Amino acid sequence: MSDMYADFKEQPGDDPDDVLFNTLYGVRTIQLNRPKKYNALNGSMIRKIIPRLKEYQKSALASIIIIGGAGPKAFCAGGDVSQLAKDIAENGETGQATSKSYFGLEYKLDHLIATYPKPYIAYLDGITMGGGVGLSVHAPIRIATENTNFAMPETGIGFFPDVGGSFFLPRLEGFLGTYLALTSESLKGVQALYAGVATHYIDSSVLSNLTARLAELVFKDYDNLHTRLRIIDRTIEEFNTGLPHDEPPHLAGNLRLAIDYCFHYDTVEQIVSALEKERDSPKAPSQIKEWAKKTLEKLGEKSPTSLKVTLRQMRLGARWNTAETFNREYHIAAKFMRHPDFVNGVSARLIHKPATKARWEPDTLEGVSNDDVENFFKIEEGEDSLDLLTQGLDYDRYPFEQDLGLPREEHVEEVVKAKALGRKRIISTMVEAKEGKIGVSEKVEEILGRRAGIDGEGKVVWKN
Question: Which positions are annotated as active-site residues?
């Protein structure tokens, strides 16, 4: 094994069974196997997964990679940050260095997934948070089920939305990513599909059958990745059991407009002020007033440092490519390991039973200066960089999102502006373009209701 892979050798104390690998014809399955810990990701698991992915990449017999979690509750509830915080509390700088090494290892895996040259599918069946997001959200195909519970809860533990959150979140529509990053709001079930976190939605009861069906697929040697993913996309639709009839898009209509308005600002103080205006406005609908009130309460519980760093991360990350994303996050994570909020937050929220209120340092937004924030993004001369495992395959936008996910607002806008059509015809046109994919009709309907109107001739017109 070359020096590049020396970090992935088994270490004393590694659990031999915390990840299970299986072969079914051309499918290779990776099952996270710590169900009692909600499949929380640790170094032992990463050291197993990376060599297998590199092995599958080289094997002509391995056509599709599927990752999932053991047990009924979680895909992966995050990285094992409790152990990291304990190590820092007990060992100081040595613990900080160990934690930095862990994040470096984790981000190498996440980047490998983001640039993987073969079809990689993630089953988001259960809790999908933190480190679990890194294992799944950069996959070209991400399947949500009725059990999906997606969130990025890092600002509540004195950290930041890492594992490529700098890339993924700012590229969600509007300012949804900023909202999810700052508030730790969760997306459950089909809501992950509507928000763009998942590309597909099926019932969990058919996942095993889907795996078996995917194992039957045989690709032509000359089929490129795009072609193979399109074949898989159509195959997944064979297992369409419909959408929940009583769960329309939640982050929609006036609520979505309020999110985009309040979270478009570039300082946390401005966001808080906008939310206060919505809460106190006599003209705001009661639903929006209540949402603003609860959102302010959520933000009030978060680390002020984490909130300010995360907002800056969302704005800068929109311009980073995948390689820069993980290199930057590696340095930001190292600085959080030296900040008291990480140990305080993890100890209060995850280690203490029952959970307690964290003591943030500083404990107000005013106490976090612009210089404090910018220091998290400075890379000092001589600092090590992340030695990524894939070179030359980085990108600025996910290459397959338009083909595999639901239509985005810009796609709907293009159709509306290019064709003078009525509402029903716009929807049917986009459903046909997506070959009847479930969720398209509901998503387009929501976008039209929020961003379009009807002219005197009954044609849809886009609102700027």
Answer: 79, 131, 154, 162
Mutual angle of helices 268-280 and 286-301, in 10-degree steps:
140
Q: Are the beta carbons of 27 and 63 closer than 8 angstroms? A: yes
- Over its C-alpha atoms, the chain yields an Rg (Å, rounded) of 22
Alpha-carbon distance 306 to 415, whole Å? 39
Neighbours of 268 (CB within 10 A): 21
> How would you classify the pairing of strands 120-124 and 141-144?
parallel
Half-sphere CA count of 301, side-chain side, radius 13 A: 17
* Predicted confidence (pLDDT) per residue in 155-196, tens digit: 999 999 999 999 999 999 999 999 999 999 999 999 999 999
Q: pLDDT of 240-270, one tens digit each?
A: 989 998 899 999 999 999 999 999 999 999 9
> Tokens at residue 164, please?
């490529």
Which tokens hold the place of 155?
């600002």
Q: Is the pLDDT of residue 402 over 70?
A: yes
Element holding 97 (H helix, E strand): helix 93-114
Strand partners, 141: 121
pTM, to two decimals:
0.96
